[in-house]
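User: I'm putting together notes for a lab meeting next week and I want to include a structural view of one of the chains we've been expressing. I don't have a solved structure, so I'd like a prediction I can at least talk through. The sequence is below, exactly as it appears in our construct file.
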Amino acid sequence: MKLVLKNSFGIRFKLVFLSSFLLVIPYLGYQYILEMESYLQRGQEQTVLGTAQALATALNERPELFDEGSYSPARRTEDLYVYPIFYPLELDDGSLLDWREYQQYEVEYDKRNYLRTLLNPARHYTNDDSVHFTNMVGEYNGSLYAYFKVQDDHVVYRDREALSVHRSDFLQITMLSQDSNKIVRYVIAPYGPEPIYPFQVDSDYSNPIYEGQITGQWYETDGGYEIELQIPMQMLGDRLGFAIFDVDDPSERSITTVVATYQVPDAERLGSLRLPTPEIDRIVAGMNNNNSRIQVVDGSGRVLLTSGDIQSASGLQLARSISEEPANKYWLYVQNRILDPLYYQLLTKPSNAFIDELYSDVSREGDHINSALQGVPMTQFRTLADRETRLLEAAHPIVSEGEVMGAVVVDQNMNGIRTFRNQALEQLFNTILAVMFIFALGLFFFGARISNRIRGLRNQAEGIIDDVGRVQNTIMPSRNSDEIGDLSRSFSNIVERLTQYTNYLENMSSRLSHELRTPVTVVRSSLENLSMHENSEESAVYLERAEEGIKRLNLILTNMSEATRLEQMLQTSEKEKIELNEVVYGCVEGYKLVYVDQNFETDLPQYPIHISGVPEYIAQLLDKLIANAVEFSYPDQSITVYCRTLRDHAVLKVSNAGPFLPEEMKERLFDSMISVRPQEKQKQPHLGMGLHIARLITEFHGGQIRAENRKDREGVIMTVVIPLYYE
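Assistant: Thanks for the context. Below is the predicted structure for the 727-residue chain, given as structure tokens.
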């Protein structure tokens, strides 16, 4: 018997597997959308460069907007350059960290900026190095911000009991009022590190009046102190100056040194405020609706104006349909919890929570800006440190009389295109997955139907022949007109013909027995008549041989018809409640008389064993088993008959000591006309029907019979298992 490997891949699996090749369709769709994304990026690149070109064209030939006196880095002069600040500053945070890169534009003032006033009419050069400071001035949201980092070897604060404000270290703010050319002075002289309390004073520092519009904080440091302040722009005129007054002796409290941002505190020579012209603001404001971040830089890369922020500058705006109906909550759950996490293993989800580490509100640099300042427009893509955000940067030169005055820088992030790409891919994947799911489901059910039909045909084919090879069922022909239906009808026709042939073979022995008995009887009677007339010794020998042949032929015919008659009798027999021990015991006692030379041993229980059956058939069953055991037993060896109950069955065993049963014959031993006897040892004709009859009787009683070799010694055990009787 060949070993058949079971194929674990059925038709349904193969169909679903083949349908998985449809996944190449979403892959091609994915590649198509990526190609479309590259086209959109090129289009956005041209749009951004066009925006920069349009703004640069509006600023061309406007040299007054890039006046070097207004926009060059601040120098140590009486003028104050006010840098634009693009975020709010904290005045009470105890440090200058929020000024960040603006501190690179601070201006230092020292003894070269010494100022002679009424409080220090005589200059003592030995005290010139006692104080110096650095200053930075900026503008944000209608207010002027400034800080002072003062280096002072002796910090003297205002006496808490003093009414004057000029007998300690203090900051003086001198400005030209907006409504006239009158000089206005404010003094900040704190009692210690604390929020500032400015006082407006006269020229001789008398009549101090508190001014609450000026706010800020005074900090003390290791080498001196720092001051941060805020002044509303509506308080300022065209000129402004700051001066640090230093007192070194806390007992005398006289001013020793004054360092200021101006030389003479009058309306003509007080420092001017250099503010950006609002003309650039108005030009850029007209283009502030293009969803971009726009910056104008001068020839040195310093930022003159910034409009918009890079986080919201996505370039591409995705409009939502007003008539769009709300999505089903179950679909949203599937989309958000299952599909999106799966999709975004492949896709990159854009986020506006990113930081442009190269961005500055003060100065800009980069290859595209350098190229624009050389007169060549340029665009470039830049990936941020988070590796998920890309920026598109374009720079176009601003030209006046053939000279590059600055550049327009337009920045956009690529999140808009990526969001559009992701939405397109999600819709594509959802559609393809739905189509593939329906298609695969249809293939699955189609394959299941075909598989079930083939499996049903297989089950019918397996149920045609029983365990002993007898044809007991047939195949119901299918009415379907496909190939499987045609196969079913072919199998049905084959089984029907095979059943007819099997019936013919099964009944052939009874037919032969019936047909041969008549001529055998004629031959026997003729021999008998001949024996009465012929008395010679030679003819007597031949007659004896002929008579012996007739007897053997008659025995063969009897054996051939015995199984057929038994099957017919079993069909009409009725079972009854019998006690198995009594039947076995009685039969064994009879065997002792029949087989005088054979020893028999019984192992029967003391309790009764009731089964449903026919005692004559049980006796016939034992006859066949004992006859077989006697024939194959070694001389002077016992035959044991064992009977017990096991759960709800009766177990009957007949064991002998003799040759082992061949392994290949264990399953076929109970078939019709099967014998393992050597031909030369057969004393009389034997057709192998004995154990076949034993199997028929066992199956009639609803039991099973099997043969196995003994494990304790050489020999064979015949085991019969029959259900117990239950009322």
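A couple of points you could mention at the meeting. The CA atoms of residues 519 and 614 lie 36 Å apart. The domain at 573-723 is CATH 3.30.565.10 (Heat Shock Protein 90).

User: Perfect, that's what I needed.
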